[in-house]
Design goal:
Elements: H1 26-45, H2 49-70, H3 75-79, H4 83-96, H5 102-108, H6 110-113, H7 116-133, H8 142-176
Helix pairs in contact: 1-2, 2-4, 2-7, 2-8, 4-5, 4-7, 5-8, 7-8
Amino acid sequence: MSTGTDEIITPNAPTTGKLDDPPLSNMEIYQNFKTQHERLKVALDHAFYLEAVCIEYAIIEDRTASILAYEGNHRSKYEKLGLGQKLKKIKNCANQKTSDRPWISTYFSDEHSNNLMDRINVWKNDARNPLTHKLMRINAPTDRLRDFAMQGEALCKELSNLTNNYKSRVKNHAQDNAPKAP
């Protein structure tokens, strides 16, 4: 499977259209998720730290939208929100500890996730945003870029693991409580 590192994009090359058309199927999303993780590994292995941070941010965006979708909301409602807004919404839901949302609290409350939403927000504000918006005006030596990329990778892994566990718990609960056929 190609990770994109052997492809060369030249300036002024014709494009095939907008990157968000057409929507991907669930299987295509799954395949793309695997591809992006492979690209992340290649980026980290070859010191392409800016690319790694970009991929990590995209993974975190996707995982947070998925968490909110599993809270009973339509995914498209949250895909347009910024990451900071998604993190705040997840944190608020998780820390409410209501009986109608027992699993989001189990996985994402500050107590159970070691303040994961706050740590992601700090990484976003201290690493991703300056690198994206101010790269030409900040001092970003390679070792600092590497540190930010490695922090992002650890946060991605932690968030992905919690998200997968959370989604499995919600799915199992739905199956256990589904009406039984007569």
